[in-house]
Design brief:
Low-confidence stretches: 1-40, 42-55
Structural class: alpha+beta
Strand order of the largest sheet: 1-2-3-4-5
Shape: globular
Largest sheet: 5 strands, antiparallel
Helix content: 25-40%
Length: about 160
Amino acid sequence: MKSALAAAVLISAALALPAAAQTAPQTGAAAGRLPNTFDQPAAPPRAAPTPAPAETQEPSDPAKVAAAEAMLRKTIAAFQAGTPNYSDMTTDLADKVRQQAPGMAPIFAQLGALGDIAHVATQDGAELFLVGFENAPTQWILGQNDQGKIVALLFRPAPPPPAA
């Protein structure tokens, strides 16, 4: 697994947080305040992400995609039940998920029932899925090591569909 994938072991909040701003002082200078990302997850970008160049995407192995989708379904069901499947994660990832778990229940309550899951691509050994929920579409990245443990897990709102 590439080092870039190993670094992507955080779970992102699925809902955007409101941006905080201050009014400009009377002197004519502009001022603003950025959210402290150590206190809360940063809001996802508003624009759709730029697709990765074709040369960095890998051909999908149907067996690995099926295993990743099965693990993703199990992981989502565990989050929805409020009991994350820590035993399916590497120790490092499980520790990070434990830190964020208290804030996860309201997110999954807002998402609603699980709908369709569609595989989008394989990149850097991880699988990218579009996951529909009753109240919002999401995008998930799941990477597994050779032992089948989850080493990378990220979810965020799905990017808007391209304009016609």
